[in-house]
Design brief:
Blueprint: H1 5-35, E1 55-65, E2 68-76, E3 84-88, E4 93-96
Antiparallel strand pairs: 1-2, 2-3, 3-4
Length: about 100
């Protein structure tokens, strides 16, 4: 079976288009990573210190409800069994129970 030059050119053009799309995606990812460079500082809304009024070792996933993220810790707080906490999506610390 013989292929025409036109078919061959069309296949090469398709491969080049695919490569250009992949390169564009790669460059976009590089730009995004650079904007979040390692030199940037991240402010923690709360640091768990494990005490009678604070949980320790956040565990599991966060649940988004409205403008708050809810989560839990595996230890600390009053009985040492952990706490349920909320943090505002704006970074402001909520409270623990």
């Amino acid at each position: 079976m013989r292929h025409s030059t036109e078919d061959l050119n069309s296949g090469i053009i398709d491969i080049i288009k695919l490569l250009l799309k992949k390169m564009a995606l790669f460059l976009l990812i590089l730009v995004l990573l650079q904007s979040f460079s390692l030199n940037s500082q991240i402010d923690l809304p709360h640091e768990f210190i494990a005490g009678p009024t604070d949980g320790a070792f956040p565990l599991g996933s966060l649940l988004l409800s409205g403008s708050f993220l809810f989560g839990m810790t595996q230890s600390g707080c009053v009985n040492g069994f952990g706490a349920i906490f909320e943090i505002g999506t704006d970074g402001n610390a909520g409270h623990e129970s």
